Amino acid sequence: MVMKICHVNLASGYHGGENQTLQLIKQQVALGYELTVVANPKSPFIEAVRQLPCRVISASHYFHAHGAKITAGYDLVHVHEGRAIYWALIQKLLHGTPYIVTRRIDNPLKKKWLANLAYHQASAVVGLSGDIVAKIHQAYPALVTHKIPSSPVTYPSDDSTVSDIHKRFEHRFLVIHAANMLQHKGFDVTIEAARILQESNPKIHFALLGDGKARPDLENLAHGLTNITFCGQQSNMGSWFAAADLQVHPSYTEGLGSVILEGLNSGLPVVASRTGGIPDIIEDKISGLLIEPGDSQALADAILTIQSNPELKDSLCTGAQQKLTTFRIEHTAQRYQDIYQTIKSSL
């Protein structure tokens, strides 16, 4: 029997969570699901979904776009973003459709009355990492919880763009740090590692890929450093992954780190922080290298270790490919289907 799922993501922007939601939707389309997607008209996400054989419903607020016809005959609603849980709650209270929640951030859950009601009404909650699941348990120990990670997105690379990047950073060992420029993403740690390495290892160059409200402060912090380039937000990450020698991601907190999965999937070695869900992806010295959050000296040392040891680099890349087996979309989509079917059979 065909699965009928209503996905809800009301984010106005387009970041890793929306990319992951889109990837799951594409896989479910390939599996023959009948899908409805409720999305924010201001987000690029809704335009991407409109390219797929799905019914698309526009809603800029969780009070909007409710009705019995939206989920009539559907198995459940799948929530992918914080405000969307309230849309699912209202739809359930009005029309009885059950829902599950995928929680992607590692912040402690705020136990306000509406959030309490929304989580207690959920048939199941999924965390992307063991750390997120633990925080869900801490707030709501009676909830049915599961751990299902993000899946790596494969980006195309353009040979001409890769060649341009190589020319731009010719004769350099290119280290990339790709993320929204927010305080918790650890760009300050990368900049301090660059400061440590500038004099002793001028061949190592850092390309910071991203933008955000922390960028002016970060540019001030990096003032005078010649081994850092602020490249801005990129739409061609596949080419950057192909051109780089190493990826770093020294976050202070991280739900999982989908960009780490993408880098590993592209064949890059990765150095990242031992925080949040990152250790679910990176086993130290097996599928990457881990450092303690905020330790710029350890980051500099790890970069030097990989630069000077091609055998270690190859070993980490091999270990990463083995680790990624259980993160593939074919595997994670099946995990979700198992949850859907369990809920459906219990009704």
Strand order of the largest sheet: 3-2-1-4-5-6-7
Topology pattern, helix = H, strand = E: EHEHEHEHEHEHEHEHEHEHEHEHEHHH
* CATH homologous superfamily assignment of the largest domain: Glycogen Phosphorylase B
Average pLDDT: 95
Output the structural class.
alpha/beta
User: What is the name of the CATH topology of the largest domain?
Assistant: Rossmann fold
How large a portion of the residues is in β-strands, by DSSP E? 15-25%
- What's the end-to-end separation, in Å? 16 Å
Task: Determine the number of helices (DSSP H or I, runs of at least 4 residues).
Answer: 15
Radius of gyration: 21 Å
The shape is elongated
At CATH level 2, the architecture of the largest domain is 3-Layer(aba) Sandwich
Most strands sheet:
7 strands, parallel
Number of domains: 2
Q: CATH class of the largest domain, please?
A: Alpha Beta
Question: Roughly how much helix do the residues carry, as a percent range?
Answer: 40-55%
Beta strands, count: 13
Low-confidence stretches: none
Give the helices and strands, then pairings.
Layout: E1 4-9, H1 16-30, E2 34-39, H2 44-50, E3 55-58, H3 68-71, E4 76-79, H4 84-95, E5 99-103, H5 113-121, E6 124-127, H6 130-139, E7 145-147, H7 159-168, E8 173-178, H8 187-200, E9 204-209, H9 215-221, E10 228-230, H10 237-243, E11 246-249, H11 258-265, E12 270-273, H12 278-281, E13 289-291, H13 296-307, H14 310-323, H15 329-346
